[in-house]
Structure to design on (405 residues):
């Protein structure tokens, strides 16, 4: 895949950069700016090279029309602080303001366009509609740089279609993320442990399937634990349960043992009567969960066992919290796993916006880990062996150079 250096001299060129600036907000306050920070080096390098940098990104999932709740304005402000330089902001994406601001950009200046998902064409399943919107985006620029790793698994106009309309390359963040994922997939140093959490089994099915052929140990926590426990014949009280995934979970337990993969489920669970920070928490055995309570974290014995396996590994990938870490009574499992990852003598990778926000909220520093990926869905799909449209299109066009590239 082409990288930025393959695009030649960018001085005076209008460079459209797709970044992933999808950060958690509390009103207009950014609660975790990790994705903005991760996007800065590429934007800064382009500006330093004299390019006129036009950043396009999404925030949340607006329904294809402007909704100020999802405005990128606070993100543009944060970007300016981190760059230490002014950042212009267009309150539309391809409208008159975007045209005016991008046309007036000077060499080395940076502009951010309003949330790309305010336009129905961005996420449309209708190729001509998406293509028409990609044409409008392409009109603003001379060159495209794909640097939003967290969205490369989306077949969307600013990720996919745009790459066939302008000379295109991947940015430094996407390059770095792919480098780490290759270390996880091509001959990982062993033992290789994968820790999966989060609420839905159905979200993680593909990756579990694929990892049963690759990992030495698979540790399961988070809300999906209860579907696995139930699949083993245990009662799970009022816990989250995906009935329609029971057979699949059972199948994984059998496959793991047939393949010699250590699939580790928690043996104790922190339960409470209600999903509430103040609900009284107790720890029970995983095979003796009371009817009137729900599981909200893995228990201390399980956390210690998970930590021990993680510390003895040479390669660890972790996606998804072990419990409801936002509530302190149910954060210990996630904290123990994060702590163990910081002790790994080898490669430790935290995957995903939510997991990254969790470790920061729990007081860990980015530098405590080998790598914190900015993409949860994207890194999981990569590990599943799926084709990621945003990368595939760039690979593909390198083999069939288009005019102007
Ligand atoms: C994310 O937050 O995972 C990425 O920014 C992608 O967002 P999406 O899941 O709404 O496409
Ligand atoms: Mg996400």
């Amino acid at each position: 895949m082409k990288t930025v250096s393959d695009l030649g001299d960018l001085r005076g060129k209008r460079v459209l950069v797709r970044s992933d600036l999808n950060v958690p907000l509390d009103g207009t306050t950014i609660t975790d700016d990790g994705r903005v920070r991760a996007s800065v080096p590429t934007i800064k390098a382009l500006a330093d090279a004299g390019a006129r940098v036009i950043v396009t990104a999404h925030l949340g999932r607006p329904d294809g029309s402007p909704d100020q709740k999802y405005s990128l304005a606070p993100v543009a402000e944060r970007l300016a602080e981190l760059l230490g330089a002014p950042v212009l902001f267009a309150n539309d994406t391809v409208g008159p303001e975007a045209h005016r601001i991008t046309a007036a950009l000077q060499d080395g200046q940076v502009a951010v366009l309003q949330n790309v998902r305010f336009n129905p064409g961005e996420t449309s399943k209708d190729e001509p509609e998406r293509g028409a919107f990609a044409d409008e985006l392409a009109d603003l620029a001379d060159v495209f740089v794909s640097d939003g790793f967290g969205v490369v698994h989306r077949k969307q106009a600013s990720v996919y279609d745009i790459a066939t309309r302008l000379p295109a390359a991947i940015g430094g963040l996407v390059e770095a993320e792919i480098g780490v994922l290759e270390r996880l997939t091509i001959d990982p140093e062993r033992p290789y442990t994968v820790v999966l959490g989060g609420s839905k089994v159905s979200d993680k099915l593909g990756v579990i399937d694929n990892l049963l052929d690759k990992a030495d140990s698979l540790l399961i926590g988070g809300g999906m634990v209860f579907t696995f426990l139930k699949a083993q014949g245990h009662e799970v009280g009022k816990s989250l349960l995906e009935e329609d995934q029971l057979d699949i979970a059972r199948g994984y337990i059998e496959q793991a043992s047939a393949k010699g993969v250590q699939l580790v489920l928690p043996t104790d669970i922190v339960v409470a009567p209600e999903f509430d920070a103040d609900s009284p928490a107790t720890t029970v055995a995983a095979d003796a969960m009371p009817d009137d309570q729900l599981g909200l974290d893995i228990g201390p014995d399980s956390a210690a066992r998970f930590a021990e396996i993680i510390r003895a590994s040479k390669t660890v990938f972790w996606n998804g919290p072990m419990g409801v870490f936002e509530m302190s009574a149910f954060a210990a499992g996630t904290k123990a796993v994060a702590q163990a990852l910081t002790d790994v003598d080898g490669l430790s990778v935290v995957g995903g916006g939510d997991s990254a926000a969790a470790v920061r909220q729990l007081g860990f520093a980015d530098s405590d880990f080998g790598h914190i990926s900015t993409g949860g869905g994207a890194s999981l799909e990569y590990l599943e062996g799926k084709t990621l449209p945003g990368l595939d299109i760039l690979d593909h066009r390198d083999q069939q150079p288009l005019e102007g590239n």
The two ends are 13 Å apart (CA to CA). The pocket of magnesium ion (ligand 2) is lined by residues 353, 376-377 (CB under 6 Å). The chain has 14 helices and 17 strands.
